[in-house]
Amino acid sequence: xxxxxxxxxxxxxxxxxxxxxxxxxxxxxxxxxxxxxxxxxxxxxxxxxxxxxxxxxxxxxxxxxxxxxxxxxxxxxxxxxxxxxxxxxxxxxxxxxxxxxxxxxxxxxxxxxxxxxxxxxxxxxxxxxxxxxxxxxxxxxxxxxxxxxxxxxxxxxxxxxxxxxxxxxxxxxxxxxxxxxxxxxxxxxxxxxxxxxxxxxxxxxxxxxxxxxxxxxxxxxxxxxxxxxxxxxxxxxxxxxxxxxxxxxxxxxxxxxxxxxxxxxxxxxxxxxxxxxxxxxxxxxxxxxxxxxxxxxxxxxxxxxxxxxxxxxxxxxxxxxxxxxxxxxxxxxxxxxxxxxxxxxxxxxxxxxxxxxxxxxxxxxxxxxxxxxxxxxxxxxxxxxxxxxxxxxxxxxxxxxxxxxxxxxxxxxxxxxxxxxxx
Length: 423
Description:
Belongs to the taffazin family. It catalyses: 1'-[1,2-diacyl-sn-glycero-3-phospho],3'-[1-acyl-sn-glycero-3-phospho]-glycerol + a 1,2-diacyl-sn-glycero-3-phosphocholine = a cardiolipin + a 1-acyl-sn-glycero-3-phosphocholine. InterPro entries: Plipid/glycerol_acylTrfase, Tafazzin. It is found in: Mitochondrion inner membrane; Mitochondrion outer membrane. It is a peripheral membrane protein. 40% of the residues are buried. The model is unreliable at 150-173 and 317-345 (pLDDT under 50). The chain is built from 14 helices and 12 strands. The protein is an alpha/beta fold. The strands form 4 sheets. It has a 5-stranded mixed β-sheet with strand order 1-10-9-2-7, with helices on both faces. Strands 8-12-11 form a 3-stranded antiparallel β-sheet, with no helix packed on it. A two-stranded parallel ribbon has the order 3-4. The chain has helices spanning 13-37, 45-54, 76-79, 102-105, 109-117, 137-145, 222-229, 244-247, 275-315, 318-327, 332-336, 342-346, 354-358, 360-383; strands at 39-43, 65-68, 98-101, 120-123, 177-178, 186-187, 199-202, 208-210, 235-242, 264-269, 410-412, 419-421. A hairpin with a 7-residue loop joins strand 5 and strand 6 (186-187).
C-alpha cells in the first residue's frame, strides 16, 4: 500500500509571523486594557501558567488542553487572556484556539484573515444558519487540534488496535483547507503536526448570558464531543469569568461600542479535572457505542461482499458458481476489513456515521458529559464564595427551548431574566 506523504510541520513563515503579530498585539492590548483601566483579580493563575509552561514545546505534549468557561460578555475573548504575561503573547503555538461566529468574525476578507491568524475557527449558529449544529466541520477541526493522531496508542480505547493505514490521518492526508458552508475556504490548522495536542477554549453556553447572579445556562453538547472524541482524552480545565459583563453590559446605552472601564474583573482557573473520575464511565460507554457501530458496519460490509460474490458467481455459470460457494465459507470480513471497520477507513477523526450522531444513547452520553462539565465550572464559581447557590433548573436544555423561537439576537430571557446576546 502506498505510504502517505509526510505531514507538514507548520504553516509558512509569513503565516507564522502574521499569526504571532495578531496574537501578540491582541495580547498586549488586552493586558493594557485589563490592568491599566480596571481592577483585576485572578485565582489559580500561577497553576495555569505552570501548565502552559509545561506545554511550551509542542513536540513533548502528551495530550490536548481544553479550557471551558461561562460567557458573560462579547469581550471575554480575547480580553480575559490579558491575564497571561506578555512573554506568552507572541507564541501562538502555546495559545488557545477557539470558535467564533461565522457571520461576524468571517463576514469579510479582512475579518476572516484577522481571526484566522488569531486562531479562531468559524462556527455557524444553528438558530441563524442551516450550516450550524453539533456536527459542523469546525468542530471536527477542534477535535483534531486536541488530538495527537487518530486512535493514538496512548488512547484508553478498548477497541482493537488498528494498522496505521486503516484510518486516514488528518495530519497526513487531510486537506490544507476545508469548507463550512460549501462556498468558503478555511485553512485547516489540524493538518500541521505542530498543532497536535493544542489548547482549545470554548464557551459552551453558546451565547453571551448576563445573569444577575452569574448563574449558568445549560451547556451545549459540542463540548461533550471535544471531551469524548479527542484522542487521547484531553486535559480538561474549568474556568469562571466575572466582571466583563459590566464592561459591556447588553443593556448599555449610547455609545454602545465603547466599553465601560473602571470595573472589577475576576478570572478564576480551576484545576485540571480527574478525567477518569469525572468522565471515565461516559467515555467507556461512548467507546462501547463506537465499537458496536463499527462491528455492525463490518458485518454489513462482509454480508455485502458475500452477496456480491455470490451474484457474480451465478452470472458466470455453474462452474464458477461452485467456486464462489466454496469461497463463501471463508470470512469475507478478513479480506475486506481490518479489525476495525469500513467507517474508520473512510472517516477521519471528528467525523461520525449517522448512528453515532443521532442514536438515543449517543445523545444521552453527550447530555451527561455537558452536565458534568457545567457542574465543574459551577464548582469554580462556588469556590470564590461570593455567589448564591446555582439554580439547578437552568442546567436543563428543555426549559430554554421556547427561546429558540425568539427571532431577535439580543433580548431579555423569559426564563431567568438575563440579558442575552446571540450575535
